[in-house]
What does this fold into?
Amino acid sequence: MPAEVDFSKGARGKFYHPGAKFNLPVYLDDQVQTRLTALASAKGVDLSTLVNDLLRKDIELIEMAR
It folds into this structure.
């Protein structure tokens, strides 16, 4: 890395996009991922769909308990 970097030709905010959506990575324990992958395969859906469905159901249960 040079001691000084010339930013004189840089453009401020060139890659800034208001309202951009960021998907957060979620890391599952090995045992959980193995079990959910098998369940998703058995249901014929991808892992993300299965996890989202399970989390939606959990959120509904939490909301009903309030």
